[in-house]
């Protein structure tokens, strides 16, 4: 494999994608994408969640065939049917979620599926030791993977693709799971390997990291490549504008509608990992008032998902209280909390929001199976559910041929409009919206923002979790920064910039007067992390 | 149009496929498939075969309903076999030892059987909810226990009595019987069949019209979405297992109340396992299950005729097995095809394919 890849002359770029288009039913994931990766460079692919980065990488890695367009590797046009075709052409992928067997050793994990290359014995071991130096992995190949930390596991993943002869390595959001110190170690490894002639495709939406590591940047927005930039000269602001685009509707809400009425009051909320070893939520205090949008900013995996699920009663808090409109709901189940007036737009609508093979009107009942208009006592009111689904379809502009089609047949944006419409039905007092516009089109995004603003003006309390910092700053009346299960800082959405917020999110501390660290205990936590 | 096609095409394909498969098996073994199948069909008109088929259909129907309730939420109640055995012996013991007016006596036996089945199912249900024990494993174990438990209960020093070469429980007095419909020499249809029909209707109403049915279906479709929608997974596991067990408890009643009036060593075993296959065949739908039960009963009863034409009767088992296997495959193939075509249709009607929305 490696011999054939080294035959290509140096004038040819490592990878060229031309006019790649990929359609899924009802939505175009990639349209006319152009991407050129030169040999030996670190090429960053930037874009928001749902912009089409992962689809593009799946196409390059042979997991999905493109509908149109060509792929060239080392100047030769190729057609990948399976990932093993891509591997043969020298392309390897390190997935965001590790694909390792914990109960096997490093060596076993690496040779698994590639036994034909160097066997499974001494030869394989020698090759692994030779390669692991390049990845910065300093463990014996006989060590069990379960004994390794996250950063070393990632190195094992890189080792796996090197072992299979990869020269071009796709890193899919590699820093999402790493702490800042590990990120800089990873970058050292990448640079070292780059000098040895490896090419990297680095997928990320974290602009600071992109500027730190990449030699060139391609920005992808709403499924298509919108341009390239030189990371040495471009600012994060400019990159963000390219990613977000100028046609993007503004999420900004100007005049404040915040009242004094406390709707949600969370006190001292704690949640431990299932094995009880460390806290996921650590002493969270929070108040959401009527007419107020409280935004939670944070790098993914810092407890936002768990916070929402604990407030929804899907996880059981270790200690602390949750009060909704003077009613203690700490001990109530999810259904009772919904009945008490919580609407919930989950972060993953497929897993938590919809019954995909069921018709739209059947989905209207989910979460409302005990209330009008979808039920009467122990009986379902299917007529009422259908009528109210028609209303949602009309009011929220859900593009569908009818309410009898299965939810899976709609595009992401229309599914999300249905979910938002449902959760704003039944007069909620609190709406919990997790990434409400993730992976939806511009039109749906604008509509969802409008609906949240309208509900807020009508006195709804909103808890908003979003990775889209512009959305967060634009919609929120108060922003809280979450880091390792704690609310570490407050930010004023009127003055804070995404850059300020970004540095607070990574625990680098307040860099602006707009961001105020909260509480002495939390303050020291940030300092401790700074010392790492 | 496509809706009905998606429901009827797979079983039709599966039956045709398994007929072909059995035909090949018959030819290899040196028999004429046409005469074999012909013998099976003409057997229906002979003696009590038709009534036997109908009776057997009712019994299989109840068994498959019991399994289907668990299937609706991806709960694999393999323990139906053990649940109805335990229910049968307890119902027979209780029915044979009490004296009540006609009607009430029968009703008490029915209730006791349902409670006994539910109680036997409650053990794996509680284990699953509190300790996370896989219900497949625990219900299989409970089946083993049920055989030993029922054998113990009919020992002569417990509740059993020796009658000829057979050990059995005390006979249920006539007040506890359920009369059937006699067709003279063609046999007697069990009265309990009407209960089976009522159960089917009740099952349909429960699944389609009640909150409980919604929660059951939602849990089966997506346990994560159901829990976000406020459906308690543990409550649903417990309830569906108990209802499944209660219905399983009724499986032996057509024979117990309409023919045998006692639990003996001649007890008909294996219906619980057939119920699993029939529920799969009928896609948990009350109508589909009725059809599957009828097919199963037909193969069982008219398969007896195969011995007369010199064909091993076991060919029926091959046919039953291949029907279930191919129906599972066919449903999955058709389901994927239908979903993809539905998505294309929606995309086409909205005109979004080809341009970002």
From TrEMBL, chain A:
InterPro entries: AAA+_ATPase, ABC_carbohydrate_import_ATPase, ABC_transporter-like_ATP-bd, ABC_transporter-like_CS, P-loop_NTPase. The keyword S-adenosyl-L-methionine does not apply. Residues 493-532 are annotated as: Disordered. It comes from the Bacteria. Residues 15-247, 264-509 form the ABC transporter domain. Residues 502-514 have a biased composition (Low complexity). The keyword Membrane does not apply. It holds the Pfam family ABC_tran. SMART domains: AAA. Keywords: ATP-binding, Nucleotide-binding, Repeat, Transport. Gene3D superfamilies: P-loop containing nucleotide triphosphate hydrolases. PANTHER family: CARBOHYDRATE TRANSPORT ATP-BINDING PROTEIN MG119-RELATED, GALACTOFURANOSE TRANSPORTER ATP-BINDING PROTEIN YTFR. This is Sugar ABC transporter ATPase.
Automatic annotation (TrEMBL), chain B:
It comes from the Bacteria. The keyword Transmembrane helix applies. The keyword Secreted does not apply. The chain crosses the membrane at residues 12-31, 58-77, 84-101, 107-127, 136-154, 183-206, 237-257, 263-282. It is a multi-pass membrane protein. It is found in: Cell membrane. Keywords: Cell membrane, Membrane, Transmembrane, Transmembrane helix. Its main location: membrane. InterPro entries: ABC_transp_permease. Pfam families: BPD_transp_2 (PF02653). This is ABC transporter permease. It comes from Lentzea cavernae. The lineage of its organism: Bacteria, Bacillati, Actinomycetota, Actinomycetes, Pseudonocardiales.
């Amino acid at each position: 494999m490696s011999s054939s890849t080294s035959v290509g002359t140096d004038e040819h770029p490592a990878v060229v994608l031309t006019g790649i288009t990929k359609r899924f039913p009802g939505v175009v994931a990639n349209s006319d994408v152009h991407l050129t990766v030169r040999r030996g460079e670190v090429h960053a692919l930037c874009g928001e969640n749902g912009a089409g980065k992962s689809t593009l990488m799946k196409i390059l890695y042979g997991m999905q065939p493109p509908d149109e367009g060509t792929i060239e590797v080392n100047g030769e046009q190729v057609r990948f049917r399976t990932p093993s075709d891509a591997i043969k052409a020298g392309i390897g992928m390190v997935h965001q979620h590790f694909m390792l067997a914990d109960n096997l050793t490093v060596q076993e994990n690496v040779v698994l599926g590639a036994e034909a290359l160097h066997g499974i014995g001494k030869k394989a071991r020698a090759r692994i030791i030779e390669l692991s130096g390049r990845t910065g992995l300093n463990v014996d190949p006989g060590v069990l993977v379960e004994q390794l930390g996250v950063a070393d596991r990632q190195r094992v993943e890189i080792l796996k693709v090197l072992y299979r002869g990869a020269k071009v390595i796709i890193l899919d959001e590699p820093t999402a799971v790493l702490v800042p110190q590990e990120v800089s170690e990873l970058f050292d490894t990448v640079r070292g390997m780059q000098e040895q002639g490896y090419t990297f495709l680095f997928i990320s939406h974290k602009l600071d990291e992109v500027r730190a590591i990449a030699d060139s940047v391609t920005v992808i927005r709403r499924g298509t490549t919108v341009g390239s930039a030189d990371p040495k000269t471009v600012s994060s602001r400019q990159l963000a504008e390219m990613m977000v685009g100028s046609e993007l509707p503004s999420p900004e809400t100007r005049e404040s509608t915040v009242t004094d009425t406390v709707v949600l009051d969370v006190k001292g909320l704690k949640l431990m990992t299932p094995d009880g070893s460390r806290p996921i939520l650590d002493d969270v205090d929070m108040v959401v008032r009527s007419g107020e949008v409280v935004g939670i900013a944070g790098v993914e995996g810092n407890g936002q998902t768990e916070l929402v699920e604990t407030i929804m009663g899907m996880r059981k808090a270790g200690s602390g209280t949750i009060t909704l409109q003077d009613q203690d709901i700490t001990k109530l189940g999810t259904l009772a909390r919904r009945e008490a007036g919580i609407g919930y737009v989950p972060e993953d609508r497929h897993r938590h929001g919809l019954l995909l093979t069921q018709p739209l009107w059947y989905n209207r009942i989910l979460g409302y199976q005990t209330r009008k208009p979808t039920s009467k006592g122990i009986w379902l009111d299917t007529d009422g559910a259908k009528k109210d689904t028609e209303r949602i379809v009309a009011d929220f502009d859900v593009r569908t041929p009818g309410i009898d089609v299965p939810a899976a047949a709609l595009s992401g944006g229309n599914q999300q409009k249905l979910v938002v419409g449902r959760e704003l039905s039944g007069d909620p007092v609190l709406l919990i919206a997790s990434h409400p516009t993730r992976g939806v089109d511009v039109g749906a995004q604008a509509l969802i923002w409008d609906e949240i603003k309208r509900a807020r003006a009508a006195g709804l309390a909103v808890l908003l979790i979003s990775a889209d910092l512009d959305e967060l700053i634009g919609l929120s009346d108060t922003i809280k920064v979450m880091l390792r299960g704690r609310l570490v800082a407050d930010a004023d959405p009127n003055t804070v910039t995404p850059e300020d917020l970004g540095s607070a999110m990574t625990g680098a501390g307040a860099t602006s007067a707009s961001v105020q660290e909260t509480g002495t205990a939390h303050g020291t936590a940030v300092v401790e992390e700074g010392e790492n | 149009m496509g809706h009905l096609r998606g429901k009827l095409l797979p079983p039709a394909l599966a039956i045709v496929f398994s007929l072909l498969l059995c035909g090949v098996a018959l030819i290899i073994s040196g028999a004429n498939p046409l005469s074999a199948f012909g013998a099976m069909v003409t057997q229906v008109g002979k003696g009590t075969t038709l009534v036997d088929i109908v009776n057997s259909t009712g019994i299989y129907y109840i068994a498959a309903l019991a399994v289907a309730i668990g299937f609706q939420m991806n709960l694999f109640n393999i323990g139906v076999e053990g649940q109805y055995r335990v229910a049968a012996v307890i119902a027979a013991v209780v029915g044979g030892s009490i004296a009540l007016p006609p009607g009430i006596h029968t009703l008490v036996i029915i209730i006791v059987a349902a409670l006994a089945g539910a109680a036997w199912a409650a053990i794996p249900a509680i284990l699953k909810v509190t300790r996370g024990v896989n219900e497949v494993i625990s219900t299989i174990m409970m089946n083993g226990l049920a055989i030993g438990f029922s054998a113990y209960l009919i020992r002569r020093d417990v509740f059993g009595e020796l009658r000829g070469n057979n050990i059995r429980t005390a006979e249920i007095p006539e007040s506890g019987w359920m009369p059937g419909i006699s067709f003279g020499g063609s046999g007697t249809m069990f009265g309990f069949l009407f209960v089976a029909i009522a159960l089917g209707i009740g099952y349909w109403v429960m699944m389609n019209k009640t909150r409980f049915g919604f929660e059951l279906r939602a849990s089966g479709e997506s346990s994560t979405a159901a829990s976000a929608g406020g459906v308690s997974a543990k409550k649903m596991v417990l309830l569906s297992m108990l209802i499944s067990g209660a219905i399983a408890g009724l499986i032996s009643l057509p024979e117990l109340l309409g023919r045998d009036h006692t639990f003996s060593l001649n007890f008909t075993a294996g219906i619980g396992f057939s119920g699993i296959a029939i529920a799969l065949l009928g896609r948990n739908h009350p109508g589909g299950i009725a059809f599957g039960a009828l097919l199963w009963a037909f193969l069982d009863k008219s398969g007896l005729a195969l011995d007369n034409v010199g064909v091993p009767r076991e060919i029926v088992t091959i046919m039953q097995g291949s029907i279930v296997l191919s129906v599972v495959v066919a449903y999955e193939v058709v389901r994927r095809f239908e979903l993809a075509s539905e998505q294309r249709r929606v995309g086409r009607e909205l005109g979004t394919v080809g341009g970002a929305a």
